[in-house]
UniProtKB/TrEMBL annotation:
Record Gene3D superfamilies: nmb1532 protein domain like
Annotated organism of origin: Mycolicibacterium rutilum (Mycobacterium rutilum)
Domain Hemerythrin-like per the UniProt entry, residue ranges: 22-135
Pfam family, any one: Hemerythrin
Protein name as catalogued: Hemerythrin HHE cation binding domain-containing protein
């Protein structure tokens, strides 16, 4: 099997546009954000967590929509390994939903955050050391570049918040992409506005963002969005 992505150069990974290079780039940025969050408090910690969500959730959503289906086709162990990673993603989605309800400086937030960090790091190691080297072994460089563009295009138009009820597999997650992306990215802009402004505008942005969160809660329970699931990654919640 190919060595871990961590030990390979950009040329070995298939060049700057290869899906392997793009994955490794995001994983390095994730590590940097985790360290910044660990050192931050209050509004700064909240804003950094929001940036981490905007990195992590589109990254994982595009993996589940584009990359894992390709790996299941080309890599013999793909079914088993992608299912294992989908279970990790599901757990991260569920824990992040809990984290969003807590005060960022509370001991409960710090404790839950540590559990999430452990899972995020385990997920990166599973991908860089096991799953992605198998993909590298199975397909030529030009396929890695084609997958890189497809993954990037999906990542740029994917939801930016945790959605534990939505299926981790097509067709459910593909159907979920457009409406949840619209709502999530709208909430991101409102939350930014709320942090930057004060007084009436800030509280109006916060309450509008809360209303959009409730809209997302209704959308994600619509039947087409929960289809395609492996039973082990189904949260089974009702609104
Ligand atoms: Fe990844």
């Amino acid at each position: 099997m190919s060595p871990s992505l961590a030990d390979q150069t950009v040329a070995q990974l298939g060049g700057p546009h290869s899906v392997l290079t793009r994955q490794k780039r995001d994983h390095i940025e994730l590590d940097r954000l985790i360290e910044s969050i660990d050192a931050a408090t209050g509004d700064e910690r909240g804003a950094l967590l929001n940036r981490l969500c905007r990195l992590v959730f589109p990254h994982a959503f595009a993996e589940e929509s584009v990359l894992w289906p390709a790996i299941r086709r080309w890599v013999p162990e793909g079914e088993e390994l992608t299912l294992e990673i989908e279970r990790e993603h599901q757990e991260i989605n569920e824990l992040f939903t809990e984290l969003e309800k807590l005060d960022v400086d509370s001991p409960q937030h710090h404790e839950l955050w540590r559990r999430i960090v452990a899972l995020l790091r385990e997920d990166v190691r599973d991908e860089e050391d096991r799953l992605l080297p198998m993909l590298q072994q199975a397909v030529p460089h030009r396929a890695l570049v084609a997958l890189g563009w497809a993954w990037e295009a999906t990542r740029r138009t994917s939801p930016t918040r945790p959605h534990p009820v939505v299926a981790r597999r097509p067709p459910g997650n593909v159907a979920a992409a457009a409406p949840l992306t619209f709502v999530d990215r709208g909430r991101d802009r409102l939350d930014q506005l709320s942090r930057r402004s004060g007084g009436t505008l800030s509280s109006a942005s916060t309450s509008l963002s809360g209303a959009l969160a409730r809209v997302a809660g209704v959308i994600e329970h619509l039947p087409p969005l929960t289809r395609g699931e492996d039973p082990s990654t189904y949260s089974g919640r009702t609104p």
